[in-house]
Amino acid sequence: MLHKWWGVGLVVVLGLIWFALGETGGMAARPAAAVALRAQQPPQSSAPAAAGAGRPEVPVAPSAQQNPGAATPAVGIGESPLILQALQARAVGDEAGASGLLRRAIQEATSIEQAARAGLFLAPAVTDLTERRVYLASALEAGVVRGAEYEQVGAQLRELNGNPSVSLHTLLELESYSVESGDSLWKLCNRTFKERFGVTPEVGLVRLVNGLTRDTLSVGQKLVVPRKPLAIVVDADEHGLVAWIGNVAIAAYRVGLGRDERTPHRTFTVEVKQENPAWFYGGRTIPFGDPENILGSRWMGFDNQPEASGFGIHGTSLPESIGRNESMGCVRMRNAEVEQLFELVSRGTRVSIQ
Questions:
Q1: Catalytic entry in 169, 189, 265, 330
Q2: What is the Cα–Cα distance from 83 to 91, expressed in whole angstroms?
Q3: Alpha-carbon dihedral of residues 161, 167, 172, 174, nearest 10 degrees?
């Protein structure tokens, strides 16, 4: 709980900074505010979140920037009066008024959850990409993203990932590497980075963090490598999945889970990765493409544990089941989305189902 109260204090301090910037239009002062944001973040743990340990620590940071064209989360029961007023202002096109009310809601919040909820509504209107990612991560960390809102948060994170040098590099702890003769992304991820930095990121994750659109490298090309491993947290109550690097949210998705509480709440490790998997069920091998094969286009199998074996993350031939408890216990995703996640996840990735 300490990190949540730490976050409340940070919300108030940063809220005052950003409110002052919004009132004065002080763009020249923004670098100082960014330094304050980084300086006041709590120390980050080098280990992924363990079962029952909660989500990674992420502070909430308000902003005065606006992007009226972005999607807004749905209004839920029990929203604060300031959020409701902000959404009424947004509905009539008063985006500046809406953002001001949401900044005020953050500044006056008495809990990290209240502040994070206001930040979630403000995030779509924030044009500063780093700030928007911090807002989204804060809402995810605080557990205030509800149900289908995972879809909207995920869409915003995918948009942010299109410009990683702006929205990621200032938030992540990174190592730098200069490409040498004979290097390939596969060699770097599976050998060189482990030898030099002690990390083994998946090729797709290095591609994302560096904004690469192809695997071809050139001698002297500069790459950055996350110092911390990817970790996955599944919010069982809201049917959401988030991929984290430290306290930075990389991707988020809506998922399906097991009927009759069949999805175990514990921490697993990804041991198997398969494209176009066959399904071994009831003594049968059901090949990929067979209508009876429910695994979809990707399988990420977990380590077997006492009373919890055979679980994993997979696609589905039943996309209408996403957001529901209809699987046999596995974490179920849409095929297009599980293919995105598959590219980021390496063997050994920890998955915490909470």
A1: 330
A2: 12
A3: 80
Does this model's pTM top 0.70?
yes
Q: Extract the tokens encoding 53.
A: 């340990």
134 token code pair? 């911090």
314 as an active site residue: the answer is yes
265 included as an active-site residue: no
Do residues 266 and 305 make contact, with C-beta atoms less than 8 angstroms apart? yes
In tens, the pLDDT along 148-205 reads: 999 999 999 999 999 999 999 999 999 999 999 999 999 999 999 999 999 999 999 9
Among residues 3, 169, 265, 314, the one annotated as catalytic is 314
- C-alpha span between 127 and 130 (Å, rounded): 9
Each residue of 317-334: pLDDT tens digit? 899 999 999 999 999 999
Q: Assign 340 to helix, strand or coil.
A: helix
The amino acid at residue 55 is: R
Task: Catalogue all structural domains in the chain, each as residue range(s) with its CATH number.
Answer: 2-147 (no CATH), 174-226 (3.10.350.10), 255-353 (2.40.440.10)
The whole-angstrom separation of Cα 129 and Cα 140 is 17
